[in-house]
Specification:
single chain, alpha/beta, eight-stranded parallel β-barrel, 13 helices, binds glyceraldehyde-3-phosphate, binds 1,3-dihydroxyacetonephosphate, binds zinc ion
């Protein structure tokens, strides 16, 4: 199947009342893990690349790997998404490269750390929406900021400092015309989100319900949605790692979000944990091995298992065959 516009994928998810996992990639093995998981569970999927991923892999390598995935998995609807675009230029270059969706994260300034003003966020998001929609490409914006800075995105702190304000969310969507809206509900990127199992005190699921009530036709996005399973942390530590105890976002909380309008669920850290644990295991148990395939194969399989579990939990499993891909020209006409 050709790459699918994310807006179409999320509209379909709304019809079917499910969420779609958006998984980060940097290399071939991660793309393969996601596509195999999508095939095994018959799932539509969003594959996303951060600025760091584009730099690490080089745009052309990444894009051509995506084209290979589309060609090799013709039954899987796949959207190619820019994660956390920090500027108009990051998003326009992704669109020119062939991405079918971009996130302009104007909740932070271009440095990806400093919370921006509402006016700045509206202006940069609106400019991106005009450019993207004229080309049929979907846009995700963000209102409120996530916590943590460990992977370079986030305002620092606990994630509770700049929660989404529902009134601002309504004004933001009206002024910018985004297809999807990322909300800040207390999550952070990375492995250290909460010091104990999160309750409403630190993970404001009620905010999602509130925003959804006010914006029933806007697709909501949950960032920082890794669950940080204890067993993945334990494998890493068992084989020489040093990860501190931490909690992520429990899958049952994500499912509550999906019941209240969340259609895109961002997961990266859980896959990083699975990959690292599998590689460490080979290094410790078979120190004589030096062929990268000996550790990349189990790493790929470990990531696939996590992605499959999330696809089943988010409800996207079984929906790959529900629709034909719309072209970007069709989306262009739709936006007009
Ligand atoms: O948004 C955060 C994702 O986990 C991507 O992180 O910038 O290290 O590639 P990255
Ligand atoms: P995690 O770090 O929780 O996997 O979040 C990923 C994310 O939000 C990517 O944009
Ligand atoms: Zn994110």
């Amino acid at each position: 199947m050709p790459l699918v516009p994310m807006r179409q994928m999320l509209d379909e998810a709304k019809k079917g009342q499910y969420g779609v996992g958006a998984f980060n990639v940097n290399n071939m093995e991660q793309i393969q893990a996601i596509m195999e998981a999508a095939r095994a569970t018959k799932s539509p999927v969003i594959v996303q690349a951060s600025r760091g991923a584009r730099k690490y892999s080089n745009d052309q390598f990444l894009y051509h790997l995506m084209l290979a995935a589309a060609e090799l998995y013709p039954e899987i609807p796949m959207a190619l998404h820019q994660d956390h675009g920090n500027s108009f230029e990051t998003c326009s270059s992704a669109i020119e490269l062939g991405f079918t969706s971009v996130m302009i994260d104007g909740s932070l300034e271009e440095d990806g750390k400093t919370p921006s003003s509402f006016e700045y966020n509206v202006a940069v998001t609106k400019k991106t929406v005009e450019f993207a929609h004229a080309r049929g490409v979907s846009v995700e914006g963000e209102i409120g900021t996530l916590g943590g800075i460990e992977d370079g995105h986030g305002a620092g702190g606990t994630g509770l400092e700049n929660l989404t304000d529902p009134d601002q969310a309504v004004e933001f969507v009206e002024k910018t015309g985004v297809d999807a809206l990322a909300v800040a509900i207390g999550t952070s990127h990375g492995a250290y989100k909460f010091s104990k199992k999160p309750t409403e005190e630190v993970l404001k699921m009620s905010l999602i319900a509130e925003v959804h009530k006010r914006l029933p036709t806007t697709h909501l996005v949950m960032h920082g949605s890794s669950s940080v399973p204890q067993e993945l942390r334990e494998i890493i530590n068992q084989y020489g790692g040093a990860l501190k105890p931490a909690w992520g976002v429990p899958v049952e909380e994500i499912r509550k979000g999906i019941a209240h309008g969340v259609r895109k669920v961002n997961v990266d850290t859980d896959n990083r944990l699975a990959i690292t644990g599998a590689i460490r295991k080979v290094f410790v148990e078979s120190p004589e091995k030096f062929d990268p395939r000996d550790y990349l194969k189990p790493a790929r399989a470990a990531m696939q298992a996590v992605v499959e579990a999330r696809m089943n939990a988010f409800g996207q499993a079984g929906h790959a065959g529900d629709y034909e891909a719309k072209t970007l020209d069709e989306m262009k006409a739709y936006y007009k």
